[in-house]
Predict the 3D structure of the following.
Amino acid sequence: MNTATKADNVTFGWAVELDFADGFVRLNTTPSEQTIEGNLYTGVGDLGTVSPINESSNLKVTGVNLTLSGASSALVTEALSSNYAGRSCRIFLILFDTNYAIIGTPYPVGTWRMDTMSLNMGSQSSITLTANSILADWDRPRVRYYTDQDHQGRHPGDKFFEFLAPNVERIINWGIA
């Protein structure tokens, strides 16, 4: 792939793998189907775009926007009804020649978590999916309680907090006969 970037007739594109609850959706920005890691990626050509992917040297949440223009009504309906929040979104950089044959091995750019999906209905419908890095999860509060019920949710069968509640207000006299 490194050698191919120095050639005269090479073009780059993207391949995106979205992990919806109903199954994977795999798309690429070439006009033809491509096989990557043994999976078939449907070609959407110029109808699919990936926003610039930014990185930061500090701990900052970065995201990426994926847009699919000319979406069919069936795809719009599926997008509205699918469970996608927090699920995986992988993006690959692919190099291909003038015949859209992949050169080398597609490079995995990164993995994000799907966050929001917006629909633009008009003469030409489009779906924009926003995916954030895993750093977005750092800001999420982690609410845990010191109760048997909460502990059983994380560690079923563990008896550590089973007798905590009856002993909360108990007076224990140390050193008195």
Summary: The CA atoms of residues 123 and 162 lie 61 Å apart.
